[in-house]
Structure to design on (234 residues):
């Protein structure tokens, strides 16, 4: 268990460093973070993640680390209204460009894989405390991807293969199609099964109040959609 916790701290440190260096990072540093994350995956998550991988949700944290590399989480939060409408307008141009770019799509795919990993957690199991924060950020990525991103003729037909996802056996084109709700074009917020899935799973990943708080914030982003329409129940 001690070794597992140390492994978790190693990955958490990598993710935190990537986020802190976001404003000053250059392509060389970014490549070094990518290489370090890939080595971590090969050593600690492949082939099955093992007991420690499941206990500490290492795959979820690993995908979140890539989001930290390719998205400015602070600007995303500001763009969706963290500091009010006036401040949000200052960041909308950046968010539109980011959400429409291959980088924005890359983050959206990692966020979709976070949801896929979370859906594997058995009912009754309680994931670690860092998971609600990761879900919240992944949902914000999907909100911006759908709300502010645009599909153009160029990005609609360009390759969406990303090296770190290819290396772990993900067909990016297929994942993108599935995450978009089996559509070529990105869905609207109310149509997005990925966004709604992330919002829906938040209150169920633990008893912490932070989960419910994050879920209530995300629910404000889609006020026109009723709960029974947003979350299909089996």
């Amino acid at each position: 268990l001690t070794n597992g916790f140390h492994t978790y701290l190693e990955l958490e440190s990598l993710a935190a460093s990537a986020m802190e260096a976001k404003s000053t990072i250059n392509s060389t540093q970014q490549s070094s973070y990518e290489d370090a994350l890939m080595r971590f995956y090969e050593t600690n998550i492949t082939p099955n993640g093992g007991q420690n991988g499941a206990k500490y949700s290492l795959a979820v944290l690993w995908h979140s680390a890539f989001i930290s590399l390719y998205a400015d989480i602070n600007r995303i939060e500001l763009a969706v209204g963290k500091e009010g409408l006036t401040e949000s307008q200052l960041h909308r141009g950046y968010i539109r460009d980011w959400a429409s770019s291959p980088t924005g799509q890359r983050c959206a795919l990692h966020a979709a894989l976070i949801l896929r990993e979370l859906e594997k957690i058995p009912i009754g199991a309680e994931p670690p405390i860092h998971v609600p924060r990761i879900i919240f950020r992944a949902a914000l990525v999907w909100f911006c991807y759908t709300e502010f991103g645009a599909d153009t003729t160029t990005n609609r037909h360009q390759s969406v293969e990303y090296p770190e996802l290819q290396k772990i056996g993900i067909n990016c084109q297929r994942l993108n199609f599935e995450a978009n709700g089996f559509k070529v074009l990105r869905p609207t917020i109310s149509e997005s099964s990925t966004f709604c899935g992330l919002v829906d799973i938040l209150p169920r990943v633990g008893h912490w109040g932070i989960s419910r708080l994050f879920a209530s914030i995300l629910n404000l982003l889609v006020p026109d959609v009723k709960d029974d329409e947003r979350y299909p129940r089996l």
